[in-house]
Design a protein that fits this description.
oxidoreductase activity, acting on the CH-OH group of donors, NAD or NADP as acceptor; seven-stranded parallel sheet; 8 helices; quinone binding; Rossmann fold
């Protein structure tokens, strides 16, 4: 008997990690995808959709595979810096898909401030804006998606954090503090909803290429940074995506922040 797909909402889905995660979920044939973007072009969205549909399994009429129909992919635009826009995002996704089963809070920003050397170089307004984009909007979206998860007794929430939440990182204090705030929320919410069939976790990557977080993408600087890691290289978006999928499909895993960082941080 075929099993209906679950709906996965991925924010920041046109970036490196978001795109790779959407593809990883699609390959299983078990998820329909609600993909958030902020300013990606139609060309970029079409390319992502075509890639996903080409890689997603097709229904098997002979065996009655564990999926129903073709993978559905829909894009939704929202400004994660505005709570009204986040509410509209949830409303739009609910109108199309009915509910969200899996939420990957992946969208994030440095607001253009990277490699900060002095606290005085970051206006307090940048702190507040960064927290809103990286943490506040993710918490609000979780709050909006959670009732349906609790009602059906199954749900998954994953945050895309950063090793900077543990180490301070190299981007700046605005970014590190916004990611650290996610961890406190994960720990509180995970304990609150564990008996309701909802798991809450975070993945904390470091030095992943193709994300726009290292400045000079895939250049000599990034290569040199990767060579300092125990594994001797930077990470790939697909490696983060596979971790997120593992988190979603492992019901016994909750209240965890998993670093995927090439051995940079020991916990």
């Amino acid at each position: 008997m075929s099993e209906p797909r679950k709906v996965a909402l991925i924010t920041g889905a046109t970036g490196g990690i978001g795109r790779a995660t959407a593809i990883a979920f699609a390959k299983t044939g078990r998820y329909d995808l609600a993909l958030h973007y902020s300013n990606a072009s139609q060309e970029t969205r079409d390319e992502i959709q075509n890639t996903i549909l080409a890689l997603a399994p097709s229904p098997d009429p002979d065996t009655g595979a564990t999926r129903t129909g073709q993978t559905r992919v829909e894009f939704f635009r929202a400004d994660m810096g505005g709570y009204a826009s986040v509410r509209e995002l949830h409303s739009d996704v609910a109108k199309v898909f009915g509910k969200v089963d899996v939420l990957f809070n992946n969208a994030g920003s440095t607001l253009g401030y990277q490699g900060v050397k002095n606290l005085a170089d970051i206006p307090i307004g940048i702190f507040e804006s960064t927290w809103r984009v990286n943490t506040g909007s993710a918490i609000l979206l979780t709050q909006l998606c959670l009732p349906a998860m609790e009602e059906q007794g199954w749900g998954r929430v994953v945050f895309d954090s950063s090793v900077a939440a543990f180490t301070g990182g190299s981007v700046g204090p605005h970014y590190a503090s916004s990611k650290a705030a996610q961890h406190g929320f994960v720990h509180w919410l995970a304990g609150n909803v564990a008996r309701k069939g909802v798991t809450v976790n975070a993945v904390a990557p470091a030095l992943v290429t193709g994300t726009g977080m290292m400045g000079q993408e895939d250049g000599e600087k990034a290569k040199a940074m990767g060579e300092r890691l125990p594994v001797g290289r930077t990470g790939r978006p697909e490696e983060i995506a596979n971790t997120v999928l593992w988190m979603v499909e492992t019901a016994y895993l909750t209240n965890k922040v998993i670093t995927v960082d090439g051995g940079m941080y020991p916990y």
